[in-house]
Amino acid sequence: MKLSKLIFIPIFLISNFIMNAQINKPSLSPKIITEQQVGLVKVKLEYGQPNKQEREIFGALIPFDKIWRTGANSSTKISFDREIKLAENIIPPGVYGLYTIPEKDQWTIIIHKNSRLWGTGGYDKSNDLIRFKVPVTNIKDTQETFSIHFENFNTNGGDLVISWENTKVKVPLFVDSDEIIFEEITNKIIKTKEPINAQTYFDAAQFYYLKNKDLETAMTWFDKAIKLKPQAFWFVYYKAELAYYLKDYSTAKAATEKCLAAAKLSPSTDYGYISKCKLLLKLISERN
Are residues 42 and 151 located together in one domain of the fold? Predict the structure, then answer.
């Protein structure tokens, strides 16, 4: 009994010593986790973000024609909560590993079904969901820190961008938001027998306006939204903008002036609509 205690105590002390000896230091390639709405799909990205640190990156630190984890440390992960298209390739909802094969003028983008690997360790090509190529864009200003992010948003998606050093690649992401939203508008306004609130009318009108679809109906819905919620001066602004687009300048001017007056009296903030109204009034005056 005494011997077992004597054996146990040194092991316990050694274990504590090892734990206490570890240095808590920041990572040179910190882990980045982002969640973003792109169109109607929620995208989550998880990757290690290294710096250039005066090193030559592509073709040197990151060799051409070899598979890359697309970041640092663990393999890069990307997830989608609904079916999307990447550069016209259908990707079902799920979590994937994002690998790449950089070349001088183009990259191979790899969506891999195994998202739990450490870097490229254990990578098996047979687990690729899809591979496709995208062109390289050379950027003039050197980018010190590696980045994966989205740009060029629209109602149906945006561009997934991978950039570092003087290299940038774009992968168009598409989700058919239009079909989903038009169906929702049909169900919530056109076919419904339930009361419709002001925000629903406004959202539908704004989307029709954005898509240049049945603009007279859009104007009717703006009017209904304003009637139900007259204090929402931003509703009036978008009615004015649509009237301007339809070249109904007298209606556009009256609505803009109404929005401007209400925005100036807003007890909290004008939400930027004073400036918007002034710019729109200037455009209207140039057309009269």
Answer: yes
